[in-house]
């Protein structure tokens, strides 16, 4: 990149670029035929990488910006390891919910629609923007990156557990995953997201899913 | 009609109860009698900034979720939002003045505490200290909750009224590690409030909020002090001063600032309006101007040259940070920052000829805590670098509209490091709490016991930007 100063500046300004590459790779793997035959935890991992990594580009970039230059990518990797690890624990818990009832996705979407309107949801969504001090060097720096990833994951899981559960019970289907990703991106990246509207959309998805199950 | 906003001290020199101030007092008293759910009431206007839980649910308006708790802080909407807020407050007061039989051209005064030509500048104007109006009735402009000013002494320190903000070259903050900008950091989405105040929001805005104290010390009560509106009027004026003192001082042209977010208010008649930033950047177009927007730093131009033309913007590189948080209390606190040689954009081999030499920025990250706001003087290598006001820190720590990460302050210490020829491997950062000048108290009045401040700087970091 030394001969391409603009690309180098872009990579300096957005060191989190490879987080989005990881996410894109996960989306591509979800498009593969027979992708839904994978082990449930593998499907959960792919779904987390595809859907959740775009939600954390800001804290990942913050992790890099608050690190010494030579540590930036290590710091981001530690953050993501911790963040995805926490989501995998949530996936492990979700794997025990083995409801095969045809109305299960509809119920889960209804639950997500109701959760969208709660105070817990609102507070955890705000907390997804937390930052924390990072030690500059040594094991303390590594520890702080892991803790930062876990802190953001806790808020994200609290905010999005119902959405992800609905996706999981919908068999990680592509339409469900795309729909839920659109909801999550809207509430994360638009000015003053209207949670009543997003909730109504989720209840609409529940009706659609229930109608399909009849 | 274009209103002219005048300095409260120039009015007070004419008469303690000059017409503008007397009518303000009468209008405030009238507005205080209106019910909480009336948009033209005193308490409603304060609740637009942030609601303090006053009154029973039955007294609160049904549309409070739309119009209350709106104040924009620690981000690039701070200045334009408060400009709309002041404008409609001024309209409400002016309508009330007319209804009470006063003049049609009433306009909001400003408090220019930084006026070096006025020895009284840092004192409260007498109309805000008098116990009674000329007719003998209680003076609504004096409130007892203030922690300083009512006794007639100077409010805040010389550092609290510093106008170094006017030298800030850009409105918008640089990326993290760079300069804070005059107007603050860009926030595109409103799930959380921004965490980095612009330099004018830091000082004199935050510093003077904390120095007056009492109602002025918290978001949810600030608007209940009649002085609040004069203070913000001066901050609004300083935006005009900043723009006019240098042709390169320009507002953002980003649609995310100008158009993409709108704010609801009620105008002077109580009618609902929704406004974007674009409508408020020209004060004459919205009906007012300031008596004085001359450059207060003009006399020092030979000492502090204006910024060089904008070069290619640097990407900040962190070169050091403190290992542990710093507790701020009543005693001075010091931390050391060990620095390493830059290996990224600030490394000598990465610096191209079209760039200025990197500036050295000290960033105070995750400033959290609670209690009565206090101002701390920040020294780098024992040289004064600026003021850390903790106004807004409790809200950024506990308010459920904020992520709880606290605030971030940035200081350009390039000249300090060069002047002190400091050890390039270490910076020493010291925080010293500011003491208020003791005020005369009536005989027998109990000594106020101020609770110990409880603030923390999460990390002190150093960037080359």
Description:
The complex is a heterodimer of chains A (214) and B (465). Chain A is an all-alpha fold and 214 residues long. Chain A is built from ten helices and no strands. In chain A, helix 2 (17-31) packs across helix 3 and helix 4 (57-65) runs antiparallel to helix 5 (72-95). Helix content of chain A is 74%, strand content 0%. Chain A starts with a helix and ends with a helix. The mean pLDDT of chain A is 90. Chain B has helices spanning 8-14, 19-32, 42-49, 64-67, 78-99, 199-212, 226-245, 255-258, 393-398, 414-420; strands at 3-5, 262-266, 272-276, 288-290, 317-321, 326-328, 333-339, 360-370, 375-380, 383-389, 407-412, 426-433, 454-464. Chain B is globular. In chain B, the strands form three sheets. In chain B, strands 5, 6, 7, 8, 9, 10, 11, 12 and 13 form a nine-stranded antiparallel beta sheet that branches. Chain B has a two-stranded parallel sheet with strand order 1-4. In chain B, helix 5 (78-99) crosses helix 7.
Question: What is the tally of helical segments of chain B?
Answer: 10
Using the CA coordinates, give the radius of gyration of chain A.
Answer: 18 Å
Poorly predicted ranges of chain B (pLDDT <50, ≥5 residues)? none
- Give the oligomeric state: heterodimer
Percent strand of chain B: 15-25%
Structural class of chain A: mainly alpha
Calculate the mean pLDDT score of chain A and round it.
Answer: 90
**Beta-strand segment tally of chain B:** 13
Measured by DSSP, the beta-strand proportion of chain A falls in under 5%
Distance between the termini of chain A: 56 Å
| Cα-atom radius of gyration of chain B | 22 Å
Instruction: Bin the helical content of chain A.
Output: over 70%
Main sheet properties of chain B: 9 strands, antiparallel
Whole-Å distance between the termini of chain B?
46 Å
The 3D shape of chain B can be described as globular
The tally of helices of chain A reads 10
Looking at the structure, what is the overall shape of chain A? Answer: globular
């Amino acid at each position: 990149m030394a001969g391409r100063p603009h690309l180098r500046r872009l990579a300096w300004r957005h060191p989190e670029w490879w987080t989005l590459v990881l996410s894109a790779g996960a989306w591509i793997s979800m498009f593969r035929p027979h992708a839904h035959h994978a082990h449930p935890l593998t499907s959960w991992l792919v779904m987390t990488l595809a859907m959740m990594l775009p939600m954390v580009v800001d804290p990942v970039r913050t992790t890099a910006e608050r690190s010494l230059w030579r540590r930036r990518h290590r710091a981001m990797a530690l953050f993501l390891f911790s963040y995805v690890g926490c989501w995998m624990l949530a996936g492990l818990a979700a794997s025990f919910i083995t409801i095969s009832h045809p109305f299960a996705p509809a119920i889960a979407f209804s639950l997500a629609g109701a959760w969208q309107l709660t105070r817990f949801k609102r507070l955890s969504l705000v907390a997804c923007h937390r930052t924390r001090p990072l030690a500059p060097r040594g094991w303390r720096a590594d520890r702080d990156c892991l803790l930062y990833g876990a802190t953001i994951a806790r808020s994200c899981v609290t905010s999005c557990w119902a959405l992800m559960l609905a996706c999981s019970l919908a068999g990680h289907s592509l339409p469900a995953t795309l729909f839920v990703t659109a909801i999550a991106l809207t509430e994360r990246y638009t000015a003053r997201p209207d949670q009543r509207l997003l909730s109504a959309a989720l209840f609409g998805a529940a009706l659609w899913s229930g109608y399909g199950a009849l | 009609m274009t209103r002219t906003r005048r300095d409260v001290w120039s009015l007070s020199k004419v008469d303690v109860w000059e017409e503008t101030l007397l009518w303000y007092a009468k209008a405030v008293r009238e507005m205080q009698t209106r019910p909480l759910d009336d948009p033209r009431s005193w308490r409603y206007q304060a609740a637009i900034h942030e609601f303090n839980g006053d009154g029973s649910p039955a007294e609160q308006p049904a549309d409070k979720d739309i119009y209350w708790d709106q104040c924009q802080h620690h981000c690039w909407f701070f200045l334009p939002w408060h400009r709309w807020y002041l404008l409609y407050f001024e309209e409400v007061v002016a309508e009330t003045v007319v209804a009470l039989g006063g003049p049609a051209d009433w306009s909001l005064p400003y408090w220019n505490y930084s006026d070096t030509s006025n020895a009284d500048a840092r004192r409260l104007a007498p109309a805000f200290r008098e116990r009674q109006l000329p007719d003998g009735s209680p003076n609504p402009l004096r409130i007892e909750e203030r922690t300083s000013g009512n006794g007639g002494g100077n409010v805040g320190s010389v550092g609290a009224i510093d106008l170094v903000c006017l030298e800030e070259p850009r409105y918008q903050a640089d990326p993290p590690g760079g300069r804070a900008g005059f107007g603050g950091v860009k926030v595109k989405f409103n799930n959380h409030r921004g965490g980095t105040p612009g330099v004018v929001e830091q000082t004199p805005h935050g510093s003077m909020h904390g120095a007056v104290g009492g109602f002025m010390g918290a978001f949810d009560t600030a608007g209940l002090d009649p002085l609040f509106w004069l203070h913000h009027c001066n901050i609004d004026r300083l935006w005009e001063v900043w723009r006019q003192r240098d042709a390169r001082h320009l507002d953002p042209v980003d649609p995310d600032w100008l158009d993409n977010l709108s704010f609801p208010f009620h105008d002077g008649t109580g009618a609902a309006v929704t406004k974007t930033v674009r409508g408020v950047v020209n004060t004459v177009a919205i009906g007012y101007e300031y008596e004085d927007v001359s450059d207060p730093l003009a006399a020092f131009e030979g000492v502090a040259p204006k910024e060089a033309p904008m070069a290619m913007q640097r990407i900040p590189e962190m070169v050091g940070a403190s290992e542990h948080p710093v507790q701020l209390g009543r005693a001075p606190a010091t931390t050391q920052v060990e620095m390493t040689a830059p290996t990224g954009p600030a490394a000598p081999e990465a610096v191209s000829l079209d760039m200025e030499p990197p500036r050295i920025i000290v960033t105070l990250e995750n400033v959290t805590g609670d209690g009565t706001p206090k101002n701390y003087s920040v020294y780098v290598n024992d040289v004064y670098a600026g003021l850390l006001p903790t106004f807004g820190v409790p809200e950024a720590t506990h308010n459920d509209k904020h992520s709880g990460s606290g605030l971030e302050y940035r200081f350009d210490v390039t000249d300090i490091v060069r002047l002190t020829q400091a050890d390039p491997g270490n910076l020493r950062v010291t925080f010293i709490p500011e003491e208020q000048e003791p005020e005369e108290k009536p005989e027998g009045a109990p000594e106020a016991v101020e609770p110990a401040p409880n603030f923390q700087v999460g990390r002190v970091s150093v960037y080359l930007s």
